[in-house]
């Protein structure tokens, strides 16, 4: 019979019984790179140069209404110069899944300073997509006309072409004002759209939040013909 597993929690700093344990090994050839997460705590995003990811999921003999959902994307960090300061630029590869989630680097622990992180989501054509802001913890934007003044998240939608790309002639402006960190936001719903998100962090630790988590799901739709 399965036995309960003892696990160290970061918030309580003590051992306790858990209902499940989740081990992540980002480099199977090096066991020291693995991490263990307990209970329903959301683990931070991880980076790996390996092309293999091992997951181990343990449960005990009790019922638990939970589980896990894993999303992974390719990204190549690049150091760029912006306004007399160096920023780490993370441009994630386009995401073509019909459902998933995006978070900044380090979420939900802490995101790094001086970064630009861009996500492009290009769902399959012919689907109706809904985007939801599940978590948002950024600094409040005092000047919505100056989006570079603090940590901000902004987005834009672009009409997709039949091959999944963008319209040749499109409005390249991001939607403003920037999304304040103390408010919730509803993203436009629609079909045939590509979604772009950009997150910028400044060099100040004092105004950092935990970041954001955006979920999306695309479903088939039907149109009534009269």
TrEMBL record:
Q: Which SUPFAM superfamilies match?
A: Spermadhesin, CUB domain
The family database entries (Pfam families) matched by this protein are listed as:
CUB
The record places domain CUB at 29-72
Q: Which UniProt keywords apply?
A: Disulfide bond, Repeat
Cite the PANTHER family for this sequence: MEMBRANE FRIZZLED-RELATED PROTEIN, OVOCHYMASE-RELATED
Q: What is this protein called?
A: CUB domain-containing protein
Q: Which organism is it from?
A: Panagrolaimus davidi
